[in-house]
Amino acid sequence: MAKNSLPLLSQLVRHQAFEDAYSAVADLLEEKDPRNGCIIPLLGPTRTGKTAVTRQLAEKAGPAASLVPMKAFVQASLPAQINAREIYATMLRAVGLKSRSGDSTSAIRDRLFRAIEQFGIRVIALDECNHMAERGSNLSARAAADHLKTVVDETGVSLVLSGLPRFQQIIDQNEQLRDRAAGTILFMPYDWQSDEERDAFVGAVDAVLHSLQSSGIEIEMNFEDLVRRLYGASGGRVPMMMRLMKLSVLQASSKPRLTSENFRRASCSMQQSGIPASLFFDNEEPDEVDLLRSFAAVMADELAPVSTGHLGLTKEA
Fold first, then answer.
1. How do 158-163 and 39-43 pair as beta strands?
2. What is d(CA 19, CA 31) in angstroms, rounded to the nearest whole number?
3. What is the CA radius of gyration of the chain?
4. How far is it, in rounded angstroms, from Cα 15 to Cα 269?
5. Domain-by-domain residue ranges, the chain?
6. Contacting residues for 168 by C-beta, under 8 A, at least 6 apart
7. What InterPro entries does the record tag this protein with (predicted)?
8. pLDDT beyond 50 at 204
9. Alpha-carbon distance 219 to 168, whole Å?
């Protein structure tokens, strides 16, 4: 019974933060000058759902002019060890072509530009763009920005750059890239301190539980208590909440109910920004400070902007 519910937990939950990010990117692509490309940064901590946004946009895009079935909106993920050659090679793979080991950077770039024109590619989404700003990068911030700018200027393609907030420094350090980039779209975890965001997280949990109950699984936990524990364990990130739910269903095996023990055992296999998720499924109910610490840990670990109200929290005795 429980395992039959796993497909439900593999579906996309189109919660409010997801819808806001999706609409923001879609609107910018729709409203841009049709003669020119644009650069759209989509940034946020890990596991918030950024890749799901670009995947949904790609699915709804029109077909490319390729003999091989493909969309005019393509996706790729930048490797951890990034250099100029790999930027172009990654985009070339996104359009279904491969570079050869002996190809020079300029040869790969020219082949990419021809493919974009011939196939009618309109958008390339690059995941893990933050790798350009990390220590393993073999590019300066200015050089990385110049390559991105060149792709847009030379081909008219639009780039959706998805990754951790540290990529913002690449934009900030190059005035020409700043001029071509749209305002950064932040896809952040839900903030427990915000009534609106807390209600949105509650709504996402409620939708998932409703689907499970409709499939015959009972939840032997108080709803409000479970929401708080799920928030703490996920740091306000719906995909992480979904992962914990799926692991809990697996822990339940063939039993038609989820207990606190299922959630506790599932949470022991998860680690969230240095705070063990299992702490939120101990006997003691997490308090407000515990929940705020979880959110702040996610934001701080990813170098995301955090208001001072989320920092320096101390738990009263």
1. parallel
2. 18
3. 22
4. 25
5. 3-11+190-306, 32-186
6. 41, 43, 184
7. P-loop_NTPase, TniB
8. yes
9. 42
Residue 183: which residues within 8 A CB-CB, separation 6 or more?
Answer: none
> Rounded to whole angstroms, how far apart are CA atoms 189 and 301?
13
- Number of neighbouring beta carbons within 10 Å of residue 100: 9
Residue pair 116/88 in contact by the 8 Å Cβ criterion: no
**Beta pairing class for 158-163 and 123-127:** parallel
Q: Which residues contact 129 (CB under 8 A, 6 or more apart)?
A: 41, 78, 161, 162, 163, 167, 170
Instruction: Report the half-sphere exposure of 197 (CA within 13 A, side-chain side).
Output: 17
Are 238 and 49 spatial neighbours (Cβ–Cβ below 8 Å)? yes
Over residues 244-258, mean pLDDT: 82
Phi, psi (rounded to 5 degrees) for 276: -60, 130
In this structure, what token pair is assigned to residue 61? Answer: 């895009």
Render the burial of 236-268: b for 16+ CB within 10 Å, e for the rest: bbbbbbbbbbbbbbbbbeeeeebbbebbbbbbe
User: What's the token pair of residue 315?
Assistant: 């738990």
Fold of 32-186: Rossmann fold (3.40.50)
pLDDT in tens, 126-140: 999 999 998 777 888
With residue 274 as reference, give the H or E element that holds it.
none
Alpha-carbon gap, residue 80 to 301, rounded angstroms: 18
**Owner of token pair 């208001």:** 307
Q: Which of 37, 17, 59, 20 is nearest to 182 (CA)?
A: 37
pTM, two decimal places? 0.88
Length of the chain: 317
Cα 30 → chain centroid? 21
Contact 53, 187 (CB under 8 A): yes
Token pair listed for 157: 């393609």
- Alpha-carbon distance of 59 to 12, in angstroms, equals 13
